[in-house]
Design goal:
Blueprint lengths: L2 H18 L5 H11 L7 H14 L2 H8 L8 H30 L5 H19 L1
Helix pairs in contact: 1-2, 2-3, 3-5, 5-6
């Protein structure tokens, strides 16, 4: 590998690490951006939002599959909690899709909306963990 290409690659990786340093999960951010292959800094946010949408959708089918097992009267609290989690995940995916659309259209113009939608997703996530 030539020193020029090594230097460019090293600089790109440093930029990814620097940008991911502002996130809640820097190592996952670095891994996601590195795997994406995108070298365009403007695409970083879209790559991360797409990955989050993908990850949010994974448990949805589990809710439907597990829900049939919680039909007895004793299991209703569990069923209600599962339904609440399912609803929060669906709301998160909706907000993430809104953010992704706004990022594609005009990130600068929609900056405040994007921040609001991502903040909502973080709030939903905290509720799921709590």
């Amino acid at each position: 590998m030539s020193s020029v290409s090594w230097s460019a690659k090293n600089t790109h990786e440093e930029e990814i690490r620097a940008q991911c340093g502002f996130t809640r999960h820097p190592s996952l951010c670095v891994e996601t951006l590195t795997e994406s292959g995108s070298r365009n800094k403007a695409d970083f946010m879209s790559v991360l939002v797409n990955k989050t949408i993908y990850e949010c959708k994974l448990p949805v089918s589990n809710f439907e599959r597990l829900g049939v097992h919680f039909v007895s009267l004793e299991a209703q609290h569990t069923r209600m909690a599962m339904d609440y989690c399912h609803e929060l995940i669906e709301m998160s995916v909706k907000r993430l899709n809104q953010a992704l659309d706004a990022l594609k259209e005009s990130p600068r113009k929609h900056k405040q909306d994007i921040q609001t939608w991502l903040s909502a997703v973080l709030t939903f996530s905290r509720n799921l963990q709590g």
